[in-house]
Fold this sequence. Notes:
Blueprint: H1 20-41, H2 43-48, H3 60-63, E1 69-70, H4 71-80, E2 97-100, E3 104-107, H5 118-123, E4 131-134, H6 143-153, E5 157-159, H7 166-176, E6 180-183, H8 187-197, E7 207-210, H9 217-225, E8 229-236, E9 240-244, E10 253-255, E11 260-264, E12 278-283, E13 294-300, E14 302-303, E15 315-316, E16 327-329, E17 332-334, H10 336-344, E18 349-359, E19 362-371, H11 378-390, E20 395-399, E21 411-413
Parallel strand pairs: 1-13, 4-5, 4-6, 6-7, 7-8, 18-21, 19-20
Antiparallel strand pairs: 2-3, 8-9, 9-10, 10-15, 11-12, 12-13, 14-15, 16-17, 18-19
Helix pairs in contact: 7-8, 10-11
Amino acid sequence: xxxxxxxxKSYLSPLEARSSADREASLFIALREQLKHxxxxxxxxxxxxxxxxxxxxxxxDGLAKLSILSKNDLVDLQSKAPLFxxxxxxxxxxxxxxxxxxxxxxxxxxxxxPWRMSSALFAAGMRRGDVIANCFSYxxxxxxxxxxxxxxxxxxxxxxxxxxxxxxxxxxxNHFSISGYVGTPDFLQIILEKSKALGSDIKCVKNALVSGGxxxxxxxxxYAAEGVDVKQCYGTAELGLIAFETDDAANGMVIAENCxxxxxxxxxxxxxxAGEVGEVVVTTFDPDYxxxxxxxxxxxxxxxxxxxxxxxxxxxxxxxxxxxxxxxxRGMFVHPRQIAKIVKSFPDMSRARLEVNETGGKDQMxxxxxxxxxxxxxxxxxxxxxRAECRLRADVKIVPINSLPNDGKVIEDRRAIGV
Length: 419
């Protein structure tokens, strides 16, 4: 358990305030141990890591040479080799298993606070002795247990409220003097409004940590008017905590300790430039379930600088959309990886996106790419490359470098919005 005897300090663990150099060195020592363990004990990783100099992977450029593992890959692997598709050791020390939509099977990692959620709870104001209502489900998926284990780690008392039964929850919140809430962004509002309707106003909730849905500015303002300080965190059932708010929402989310977060160009494993929007890819160090370069399917970007809260890890802007932009055009699926392959075939092309429109009931594609001083012949070469790769014809438009929006989109389907 972390040392949390002081309620006045601004962060849970000294690891959160270490230097960037110390953090990177520690992460890549842990990574090399994880890679060697996975290659030796997990059938999937034995095959995927074969031929790599695992001891030589000392930085993010080295890590980026390894292939991406996606959720779709996990679904396929697990359908062929339950429980974990060869991604985990044959004799993993698993306490619980969960069955999330996909379907994907996730194990509960070992150890105290196995999903590493304690830091997010602490940043949201939860402290030893607080009574927290955990309004995530404990059924089928791991969300309820994720926060339950974290609350125990920092010495909080958990009321396993779950979802529904709002009248009973109103009574329980007042009976237990619930000071903290954990759950989806909207459910606490439902409970508080129900308490007003019943004439049993809940005034005890002071802090909330929300996830699993959007926390809109108007909702955050509503909670502030009710005297509730709300923070949000970003995590997944497979990976646990990825990032979390620590102060003002405009300052983004601090990346969690003991995991490596990369931002890559959708459809590839290629690292994007600083500040560019891309897909969030995460590596964790649980020996019983090694997830190496696991693609979340979510878009985000790094924020420059450090948080004002004292934590020194990199920050994410937050959730900026979905990375899986696969689109069906004229009966054919077009994938982001195909666009990435076209870009790589032209050394002078920096970025590109495929824009899909509809005119008179017919699909039209425009391949928009950034190039500096293109030769006259390159337009036709790009047209041929798009047709060969996608098996569809597209108009080609060349624009100056840095002309495309920084929104992570590789394929933009504009048919649904009628423009």
